[in-house]
Design goal:
3 domains, 17 helices, single chain, 439 residues, three-stranded antiparallel beta sheet, alpha+beta
């Protein structure tokens, strides 16, 4: 794609005649800035970054876009058009008639249909430097009326939710994390950061995630509502991730575990929502059924973990008894010397059994991740995010609230020799709200 983009600058194109007067310059800008970027949407790249960004007409109100030409804003909104801004040109494109197809294809943009003496098309190019001229405005308004468009009647409740979560990022989440004042009360850096993370997650849960099941129910009957909701949520999570990344640049937060943990959990929730899209909107699956299905993963992990802890406790008891016997024997105990009370296992055998038990649970986590693919995200494998090369991270859907809470994170060391069941306890039973008074 990069080579094609560079090659395009070296060739001369002979453009077909068009009512819109699409010349070589406009075509090349559209190809490089719109078409190519749309093809690599969602792929980290030098051209665009994580996502190809465009505005739907409703975004003009949602995001307070004011630099779009006022003379065309009402028409664009009424006709539900897609808007892409480049350095010199605004491109206005009608949405696709079918979900999944690319509205920014070259063939689609160039197509003109002559019917009854009038030309109809799928998109326009507005040169920014000409948009202030009344004569150009008059022509452009006439062209807008010739764009094929769909009437997407997005639910008002979904629009309000989209506005709400957008405002939350700017007005509430950003002040929580990026307030530069850290109270000097003698607390450790980890506890100072943890207080902000707790406040952040409480707000995220109560003001955004708690409403999510209701929004999903509203969107179930319309594919366009579903697309709108998922697009807004993905954008919201992307903004949160950028915010958290900026927060972690602060010297106090750079190496804080809770800050790393939050970044992983927000990313993983976005992935969980995206990968469960089919089930979320399946009319045969209720919200409660989906929640229970997703909850099976954490329940299975806890069950296996508690079984492992019980077995570990038995081994630790045997180790203690063996040590006591060895101590008595070393101190000259009469009955110990005669072999009375001699343990069934040697200390070496018990240590091997302990290591084997750790190994078994490590493998069990990997097995359960494969069994519950829809409820567990292997972060390093399913995303391009890597927070610590020495660990692999598994995000597990909350067993009680499903997608209405941030998931758990279990970190497994790549070096299995350093793994232990005891060290995993905080991960398996992580509940940030229970830690409010301990921080």
């Amino acid at each position: 794609m990069y080579e094609f983009s560079d090659w395009l600058d070296t060739i001369k194109l002979e453009m077909p005649k068009s009512v819109r007067q699409i010349n070589e310059r406009i075509f090349k800008i559209f190809t490089k800035e719109v078409f190519i970027k749309s093809l690599i949407q969602g792929i980290k790249s030098l051209i665009q970054g994580r996502d190809f960004r465009y505005l739907e007409a409703v975004d003009l109100d949602l995001y307070g876009v004011t630099h779009f030409p006022a003379f065309i804003q009402k028409e664009a909104s009424n006709r539900k058009l897609l808007i892409v801004e480049t350095k010199h040109i605004w491109f206005i494109v009608s949405p696709s008639e079918t979900l999944g197809s690319n509205p920014f294809s070259l063939r689609r943009f160039l197509a003109e249909d002559i019917t009854g003496g009038f030309a109809y098309f799928n998109g326009l190019a507005l040169t920014k430097s000409l948009c202030d001229k009344p004569e150009v405005q008059e022509v452009m308004l006439k062209f807008v009326n010739r764009i094929f468009s769909l009437d997407r009647n997005i639910s008002d409740e979904l629009k309000k939710y989209a506005i709400h979560i957008r405002k939350m990022v700017k007005e509430q989440f950003t002040p929580i994390l990026l307030d530069s004042k850290f109270t000097a009360d003698g607390s450790s850096a980890e506890k100072t950061i943890a207080r902000r993370i707790i406040k952040f997650e409480e707000l995220l849960t109560s003001s955004v995630l708690r409403q999510l099941p209701t929004m999903i129910s509203i969107a179930k009957n319309s594919e366009f509502d579903q697309e709108f909701l998922f697009h807004r949520l993905n954008g919201f999570f992307n903004e949160l991730l950028i915010l958290i990344k900026n927060f972690r640049m602060h010297p106090l937060a750079r190496h804080a575990f809770v800050a790393q943990h939050l970044q992983l959990r927000v990313l993983a929730l976005d992935v969980l929502i995206q990968k469960n899209r089919g089930a979320i909107f399946d009319p045969t699956i209720s919200t409660e059924e989906l929640r229970e299905k997703l909850g099976e993963a954490m329940n299975d992990i806890r069950e296996s973990y508690e079984e492992g802890l019980n077995n570990m406790a038995e081994i630790e008891e045997l180790i203690a008894n063996t040590k006591a016997y060895d101590d008595k024997k070393a101190s000259g105990g009469f009955f110990a010397k005669l072999g009375f009370g001699k343990p069934k296992y040697t200390m070496e055998e018990l240590r091997e059994a302990k290591q084997e038990l750790n190994e078994e649970f490590f493998v069990e986590i990997v097995r359960l991740a494969k069994k519950h693919k829809q409820a567990i995200v292997y972060v390093e494998y399913e995303t391009d995010f890597e927070i610590n090369e020495d660990y692999r991270h598994y995000a597990i859907a909350n067993e009680s609230y499903g997608l209405a809470r941030l998931p758990y994170i279990i970190a497994l060391p790549e070096d299995r020799e350093t793994f232990s069941l005891e060290a995993l306890k905080d991960d398996v039973y992580w509940e940030i709200f229970d830690q409010i008074y301990n921080v």
